[in-house]
Write a structure and sequence with these properties.
Elements (H helix, E strand, L loop, with lengths): L9 H15 L4 H7 L4 H8 L6 H11 L3 H6 L15 H6 L10 H56 L8 H4 L2
Helix pairs in contact: 2-3
């Protein structure tokens, strides 16, 4: 039996996944071409196995909010790959999160809640770290204030002390 390596090439997966994502998003070739600033013939050629230039590929993955690795290395039609994390945390932070063509609404909500929960946990950690830093700084400030008060007391004591008059050395020898 002969293995068809073309079936496993990145170009094959890219073309297959591009068509899969486009159809799952409910777009025709013309609509996707317009979104990524191309013409329909470009999309047709990419779906037939012609690899796009890197800048075009980046526009496509940005629109679908996936990585180049996902579109070129995973067969998205396989069921085990349907639950991959399609959208980056960057999209969530910017508020550009769109409905995934591959995840159910429940899975999407779960992903959003999980990411937001993680962000809240991260912020709580930062707040606690900042509180610790503030406490250390307050302790340092109190120590400096105490040292300053001690020096002021010493200076005041020295000013009020009755020291004997000092006689110059030249007068002592006479």
């Amino acid at each position: 039996m002969q293995i068809n390596y073309e079936k496993y090439s990145y170009k094959h997966l890219l073309s297959k996944n591009l068509k899969f994502l486009r159809l799952k998003a409910g777009l025709n070739q013309e609509e996707l071409a317009k979104i990524v600033d191309l013409n329909r013939d470009n999309i047709t050629s990419y779906e037939r196995g012609i690899a796009p230039k890197i800048d075009v590929l980046l526009k496509i993955v940005k629109y679908f909010q996936i990585t180049v690795e996902i579109i070129c290395e995973l067969d998205l039609e396989k069921k085990e790959n349907l639950n991959i994390e399609l959208y980056s945390s960057e999209a969530l932070k910017k508020g550009t999160y769109k409905k995934s063509p591959l995840l159910s609404e429940e899975q999407e909500r779960g992903n959003i809640v999980q990411k937001q929960g993680q962000e809240v946990d991260d912020l709580k950690k930062e707040v606690n770290q900042l509180k610790s830093i503030i406490q250390m700084q307050e302790t340092t400030i109190k120590a400096y204030e105490s040292a300053i008060r001690a020096q002021e007391t010493t200076i005041e004591t020295l000013k009020n002390a009755n020291f004997p008059k000092q006689v110059p050395v030249s007068e002592v020898s006479q």
